[in-house]
Amino acid sequence: RTRNRRNTTIMLLEVPYKKGDTVSIKLVSGEEVVARIEAINDTSFKLHKPLTLMQGPKGVVLGSFMMTADPLKDITLPKTSVMVIAECEKSTSKKYIEVTTGIQTLS
Length: 107
Hints:
6-stranded antiparallel sheet; 1 helix; globular; mainly beta
């Protein structure tokens, strides 16, 4: 909250996530998805290159969220499928960028 010159209380609304944010999403099915938000509306998230956590030979890796879907196309995820959404942890966010773009990020 903040007060303006007329001493009127104004509510400041913070939008927690926006287009371009890399987020971790826990689905009601238990899967965890890492993706970049392309759009948000009242009922769904439009996600760019969603990846899921998978067990690899040397530990946890990021792999395709949907094996048979075109990996270059965005997907629409209904909000009813989401249990939790959070800002992606820094090292996971860097790994997501490396996997989806081929760009190596600096530590």
